[in-house]
Amino acid sequence: MSVPTAAFAAARLDRFLAKEPVVWLSTVRPDGAPHLVPIWFTWDGTSLLVFSKPGAQKVRNLRVHPVAMLALGEPEDDFDVALAEARVELFDAPATELPDAHITKYADRMASLGLSPEEFIATYSQVLRITPTRSLPWHGRTTPRSVLAVATIEEPVREVVRRMHGEPMGPNPTAGKDDVAPVEPRRPWWSRLLDAVLPAPSPAPTLTPAPGYSARV
Fold first, then answer.
1. Cα 193 to Cα 8, 99, 132, 137, distances in angstroms
2. Cβ contact 115:58 at 8 Å
3. I want to staple 13 with a disulfide (CB 3.0 to 4.6 A). Which of 49, 82, 101, 173 is the partner?
4. For 37-83, what is each residue's pLDDT tens digit?
């Protein structure tokens, strides 16, 4: 994967992790069989924090193979999804309280299940830290909204489409819609990849009138 493609794939992943309530976590059982589950998480811009039952199958898998794959997004929107490979760290000590970010994100869902934060952490005390190591570009034939949103950060849409040549896009991907909201410019973890490949903007040339030329208004 080229550096520009990797950068924009990472940017798309960051946007999905910042807004999605659930991520699909794929791990490998000790016997080599795949295992896939949806999980709650909080994202700090670098890693996902997950709370699990200590004896869950995914925990047993990760003790043997501490690597995983992540999937986010709605495939019916022309496969506008984010995929990533990740490494996983299992905390030795059980959690005794939930971080504020986790409570804020899932307070309504826990309440609908009749769970208080204290009851939740008493059951889901195994802490996992999941750190993406490689973002995988993937979408359908059209240019998805997540790509268009990332494009507003650094460069025009058609340049993003041109640079993302590693994706399974059609020969004439659609242009963006006018109602795509721009993203607040910031410096996320993947921005250094863009800095490495995108040239700095050139100053506008200064035009000097030819000798004897006089402008007429």
1. 9, 30, 15, 15
2. no
3. 82
4. 999 999 999 999 999 999 999 999 999 999 999 998 877 656 678 88
Show the tokens assigned to 174.
Answer: 């659609």
- Rounded Cα–Cα distance for residues 121 and 134 (Å): 30
Residues 215, 165: Cα–Cα separation, whole Å: 47
Measured CA angle at 190 (ends 185, 196), to 5 deg: 95
Nearest to 146 by CA among 34, 47, 25, 18: 18
- Using N-to-C axis directions, what is the helix angle for 3-19 and 145-154, rounded to 10°? 110
Tens digits of residue pLDDT in 88-113: 999 999 999 999 999 999 999 999 99
